Amino acid sequence: MAENTVPAARVPASLDATYIDGSPTPLPKRDSIATNERTRIGALTPIKSSEMALQDPQPRCLFFDVFGTCVDWRKSVTDELWAQAREALNSPSSSIASRIRFLASDMTYEEWGELAQEWRNGYLKFTREVASNPDPSKPYVTIDEHHLESLCSILTTRGLVFPRTDGTPAELVHDGSLWDEHQIQHLSMVWHRLDPWPDTCRGILELNRLFWTATLSNGNLTLLKDMCKHAKMEFSHILSAESFKSYKPSPKVYLGAAEKMGLKPEECVMVAAHLDDLKAAKSNGFRTIYVERPLEERRPELKEEGFVDVWVGADEDGFISAAEKLGVQVLKGRRRSGSAPGMVETTWAG
Hints:
Number of strands: 8
Distance between the termini: 14 Å
Protein name: Haloacid dehalogenase, type II
Structural class: alpha/beta
Pfam families: Hydrolase
Oligomer: single chain
Shape: globular
Strand order of the largest sheet: 4-3-2-5-6-7
Strand content: 5-15%
Keywords: Hydrolase
Radius of gyration: 22 Å
GO molecular function, one term: phosphatase activity
Order of helices and strands: EEHHHHHHEHEHEHEEHE
């Protein structure tokens, strides 16, 4: 792969262009030009290797967990559940059974948050079962498919919708549930519309100046493309566990992603807010960056095992602090999270 000749490229307005199915785009080079046309926040100047947190070899691609690491799924999903429940309860055209109306009306925002957490827990259980007990005889189930099935089950169990017991087409069912089938399907797609953490977009742009950046999520490709477009997250590549017909923490996902990028595992870094994800990545040869996010850590005891190479604490500035630790010279005057510039033509100095 030629590293010294980097053709001009457009930062994608349509994220379809970011999904790779072959060789990745050339790696950005450090330069000493006064302006950087991609970010318009100042170009990099050469730095000493001793100033970088990860060396020997220098990383070439940062792979990002998405749910919880890049986006605040908990607030986004809870907000949507709460808003859609209020809308259904207040709609003059809704025909909600009295029992369900009373039940939904009494639910607080915090209780909808508990439902969101139950939904998330079901996702974690599902993906780990697929990763640990692969069955080639069963068709691959995407996260979108699982999210819909799981939501229907949770709502039925909680008594917010009536169970479907016959083959009546969904569009003909008006049985007094809080939501009809089409509304539930739309609600299940909330995971396509998650909002980023304040530092996410700016941090990704900064990291793009030295590295490839790629999603590596259990979310399916359509979900990830939609989410990146919604949240304005400008990763250089979008990769999904769907491409490898498994889910993290299966080695197939980590090693498959490295191979797809044409890299050795030691040239790859996993960025996540979950220690179990990083432990699996580390066991497959990746380096690791932990970015602490509120309420995201599910295995705090793993901290003592020492497999994290770079730690970004809750009192730091997320991906922006990670960029600084990796040698990106973030201009202090424009360091504030959320101040990322718009998309522009890209020309890297070679």
